[in-house]
Amino acid sequence: MTRKISTGTLLLLLFVPLAVMSEVKTSHKDGTQFSSYQTYAWRTWPDLHPEHPLAEGTLLDLEVKSRAQATLAKKGLQPTDSGDPDLWITYTALVSETVNIDGVRKEVAPGVAWIGDPRAHGMVAYEEGTLVFEIYDAESDVQVWSGWSTEVAETRKKLRKKGLNAVSKILNHYPPR
After folding, report:
1. How many domains does the chain contain in total?
2. How many Cα atoms occupy the beta-carbon half-sphere of 73 within 13 Å?
3. Residue 1 lies in a domain
4. The domain containing residue 49 runs over which residues?
5. Does some domain include residue 177?
6. Contact 80, 72 (CB under 8 A)
7. What is the C-alpha separation between 122 and 110, in angstroms, rounded?
8. Maximum Cα interatomic distance, the chain, rounded to a whole number of Å
9. CATH number for 53
10. 176 inside domain
11. What is the gyration radius of the CA atoms in the chain, in angstroms?
């Protein structure tokens, strides 16, 4: 029995990745006494270009830090400008444009693929961004915790909004349980 997939069903299946809730992933250094940390300071990501949207002092940087500060305060951590924090915190975001092409695919020569009938496949373009926080013990400069989440959205503007919401989602996992 042959079944035809309606255009609406096909579009729904293609957009499922855009609707999936992102998962927060974390990593931590075993044996770390997280309860001993009380203060933190921000450290700029080492390879960040000064014109990057997250460069220190940009509106986006200030918004990320403000959201992070609110979440970290609930965890008992306070920012300090003393130059002698318990923790250093860095963060960055990696963004890429992604295109998914689904359909009938046949390799016709090495490295050359044919994608079948244009009515039998679909193409979806979207933005994919990963927000990463890294937390270091300031005394030893050893990374003790990291958390990250990947978000997808139809536009860069929507991805930015999802990324800002991800700040709290990620930092809610600090310290590890």
Report:
1. 1
2. 8
3. no
4. 7-171
5. no
6. no
7. 23
8. 73
9. 3.30.160.670
10. no
11. 21
Query: How many whole angstroms separate alpha carbon 152 and alpha carbon 128?
Result: 4
Q: Assign residue 151 a region (left: φ > 0; alpha: ψ between -120 and 50; beta: otherwise).
A: beta
Encode pLDDT of 41-93 as tens digits: 999 877 778 887 888 888 999 999 999 999 999 999 999 988 899 999 999 98
In three-state secondary structure terms, 89 is strand
Distance CA(88)–CA(37), nearest Å, equals 11
First to last CA, the chain: 52
The C-alpha atoms of residue 98 and residue 17 are separated, in whole angstroms, by 12
Q: Which residue stretches of 34-155 are H helix? A: 59-74
Question: Is residue 57 a contact partner of residue 95, using CB atoms and an 8 Å limit?
Answer: no
Distance CA 26, CA 24 (A): 7
pLDDT at 53: 81
Those residues whose C-beta lies under 8 Å from the C-beta of residue 110, and which sit 6 or more positions away, are: none
pLDDT band per the 50, 70, 90 thresholds, residue 132:
very high
C-beta separation of 7 from 152 below 8 A: no
Q: Give the global pTM.
A: 0.75
Task: Name residue, tokens 């958390």.
Answer: 147
Q: Which two tokens stand for residue 98?
A: 């992604």
The answer to the question of residue 2 being in a domain is no
